Amino acid sequence: MSGNSLTVAGSRSVAVLAAEQEKRDFVTMVIAGQMFGIPVLRVQDVLRSAKIARIPLVSPWIAGALNLRGRIVTAIDMRRRLGLPPRDGGASMSIVVQHGDELYSLVVDEVGEVLSFPVTSIAPNPPTLDVSWRGFAEGVIRLESQLLVIVDIDGLFERAEAV
Amino acid sequence: MNDLLVEFLTETGENLAVLDVELVQFEQDPHAPGLLSNIFRLVHTIKGTCGFLGLPRLEKVAHAGENVLGKFRDGDLVVTPPAISLILKAIDVIKMILGSLEATGAEPEGDDSALIAALDDAAAGKFQATAVAPLAAATVAELPEDVVEHDLVDHAPSQVPATTPVASSAVTATAAPPEGAHREAPVSHQSIRVTVDLLENLMTTVSELVLTRNQLLQIARGQKETEFAAPLQRLNQVVSELQEGVMKTRMQPIGNAWAKLPRIIRDLSLELNKKIELDMRGAETELDRQVLELVKDPLTHMVRNSADHGIEMPEDRLRAGKRETGRVLLNAYHQGGHIIIEIGDDGRGLNLDRIKAKAIQNGLATEAEIAALTDMQIQQYIFRAGFSTAEAVTSVSGRGVGMDVVKTNIEKIGGTVELKSIEGVGSTFTIKIPLTLAIVSALIVEVGGERYAVPQTSVVELVRATESGRSEHRIERVKETPVLRLRDRLLPLVVLEDLLQLERAPGVSASDERFVVVTQVGSQAFGMIVDRVFDTEEIVVKPVSPLVRHVPIFSGNTILGDGSVIMILDPNGIAQSIGEVVVSAAVSQQDTKQKSAEGPDLTTLLVFRAGGDGPKAVPLSLIARLEEFEQDKIEFANGQKVIQYRGTLMPLISFSGGDSLVKGDRQPALVFAENERVMGLLVDEIVDIVETELHVRLESDAPGMIGTAIVAGQATDLIDAGYFLKQAFPNWFDGPNKQSFESETSSSKRVLVVDDSAFFRNLLAPLLQVAGYEVTTASSAPEALALRDDGDNFDVIVSDIEMPGMSGFDFAANVKSDTRWQQIPVVALSSHAQPADIERATTSGFDGFVVKFDRAALLTKLLEALSDPRRAA
């Protein structure tokens, strides 16, 4: 631009402001009281409790398979995947995501709203974060009363091979 | 990436594939009409578009290639393998750049100046015979330089380059052009491009439609005349047509998988200095796109194998009286609901000795086992994992990826691979695969409260059975493995509930009634136990999620008419999971220790009732078959009961002597057989098959009895099968008819019984056990010697003389010449008892000689031998 640089109170440049205002949207969910977020662009669908058919002989965190409008979707028991205790009754909900060419249904306790956060509010994983989560935790966002852990879908499945 | 680029990538990719094939054709036949102009046109187009899209690197390479082609076209340059190789190299570089473009959207960094310089030199007529080699490090034959220059000097454009350079060059790969592909540039059909995803979705939707139609038809069938009937009929027809049409869109000619092969063969022949011809027939044979994908790599692998390992060097071929040029033949055609693909060569065939050596070396079999196999069975070893007879891993094959992977991949899609090979003549592999994987008929079953699908094509039979015997078929147990007696054989069973690790839902009582789904994998038949059987349904097979792919038991999953998701079972995978357990349970080895193993010695006995109240028993392994004869079929001949049985006249002996027959029309019998002789022992009732430790508590002197043991809690008489066998055939054992024997309780001396006849091993073992010996058996002399290598020791050895492979004589000689077993007395067992035989036995090293089958003499001899431990050789 020509000589006039636009400055705002506090003499921060446009670039920094723009970055501050850049936002990310997440679909939020709750698993065992902990909040998680998945980038909204990765989420295909949100389901209420669906009939899950068990698959024998696979890792316990694979809950089974379900029928989503004619497509077979593999259901992942997120509690097990995260090493959390099983649920004590109550209906679950699922978030359907795509990884590779396949659809997966992540079974969680509750699905919340879509929330928007500025990029700058995303903090790196705190050292206190559960070690086994590091494979797929992309960072955290400090909310009023709790921490929201951002989930990296690809990490969830890549490391899964080894589990 | 913008659309233009995507379009360019797709189209150029296709063109490059065509160029590969056409350049190879052109090399063999530079005069083929239209071929050169087509090639030129394609390269020209690529160059042009590169310029337009701003892809400088690609443009330069394409331009250099175009130059050389232009020279060909103008007749200024001779068509030679090195020139073609250069152009092919340029094609490869273009492919590489395209790949990079696709991945990153930009041309990769790199310098092609060497290649371009070589191309320019080639265009100018200068050849560096060794500088720029084709892909693999090849020995490019020296071009007859004078010939090249001669043509250039001539410079007559109309003079087509002599074909002699092509023919005279020492390294020539001739590939017969694939049928049909030799024709001119692709006929312009009316066609459009459609993405694969769109077709997939279409397929899925149509499949759902098919299933819904099936449901509707089902419902309609149950109803009386309604106004729905007519429209439903029409719907049925229309849907069938639609299904057929959509299936067709999935079908592709197998030639697509073969496209790369001419080039591969060409490069291979150059690299290996061999002459190889590729003959492809049936390239237009169509198969499902999905199947095509899966079969592409195995085919390429096998063709490479033929070229690398099969076809011999030209000199060797001539010496063997064959044509100098080896031939690899690909032949595809439809048969039934399958496509058959043959891959054959007229090379050296499979080397049996090498396979044997490799199998032994890799620990897949022992020498003894190999010796017993037929040539065909030995050839099958190449399909085992980890097997590769390639001396060295060449860059071509022998990578150890191997035929086992090929076979597994083909079997995964429900296909089979067969092999026919004759040393010195050639080998042919035949692959048979189902035309389409999409919709199959499946039997729906219930296991552990959940439903599963079994492909109808694998179901041989369905049998209702119970454990308690209430129905016609009974599930019995042999060595803890459940088996089913089905007509004349014992079928091993798999308890699916256990295999799938399912727990029965609490509260559901286990009903006694089961169903057995009989299936066959290769030559192995077995049954799967399920709780319930539902209908047969047409299902759409969908591949399992990648997370589930490692489980061999499932071949896919599907959605049923009611919307529920169920897994599809794969009998191949199930057979793999249960391993090679229980092949023929009926004739399994009796469990006298074959090798020193821990655990109790269990013997499997057949318990029956005959002649009296108490149960009787005989080792199951002695019995060939359990039969039931109709009373009116039993005839009399020579004062003996006989029956016509499987083409011979079989004598029948009543257990209790006399002519008493069971009331009712069916007479149970135990059939004993050895070689040609069969004999049936008539009993009152066949009771059970029991596995137990055999301890004969009370010995018996009664004829036909060995003693009494406790079997399944009951005092059971163990019968002496030999006695009855001799009643039928007095010369069954070729020896005098002795009935009494002395029982001697020695303090568990260890005796090794060596005899190739399972019958005799099983006959001797219990008798010797009863006499108080600890018995180990070996089915051949080499096997016995292997025990010696293992460090086993015995107090006395009893060996047959007439054995295949190493005879008893050689065995004895071997034992006596080696310090380890030198001191052990060896007793010979033979059907021949001439003085000459006895003498020969003694000279070979035997310490004693007993005629088969003189029980008393044997036991006496053993005692003698044992009481005199220090025997001179």
What does this protein structure show overall?
- The complex is a heterodimer of chains A (163) and B (873).
- With 163 residues, chain A is mainly β.
- Helix content of chain A is 11%, strand content 43%.
- Chain A is built from three helices and eleven strands; from the N terminus they run αβββββαββββββα.
- In chain A, a hairpin with a 2-residue loop joins strand 1 (23-31) and strand 2.
- The relative contact order of chain A is 0.21.
- The model of chain A is unreliable at 1-8 (pLDDT under 50).
- Chain B has 873 residues and is an alpha/beta fold.
- In chain B, the strands form seven sheets. Chain B has a six-stranded mixed barrel with strand order 10-11-12-13-15-14. A six-stranded mixed sheet of chain B has the order 27-19-20-30-29-28, covered by helices on one side. A six-stranded mixed sheet of chain B has the order 21-25-26-24-23-22.
- The longest helix of chain B has 26 residues, at 3-28.
- Residues 129-188, 392-400, 580-600 and 734-746 of chain B have low confidence and may be disordered.
- The interface between A and B is medium-sized, with 22 and 23 residues.
Q: Return residue spans of chain A where pLDDT drops below 50 for at least 5 consecutive residues.
A: 1-8
Q: Helix count of chain B, per DSSP?
A: 25
Largest interface: A-B, 22 and 23 residues
The major pleated sheet of chain A works out as: 6 strands, mixed
Class inferred from helices and paired strands of chain B: alpha/beta
- Identify the overall geometry of chain A: globular
SSE ordering of chain A: HEEEEEHEEEEEEH
Number of beta strands of chain A: 11
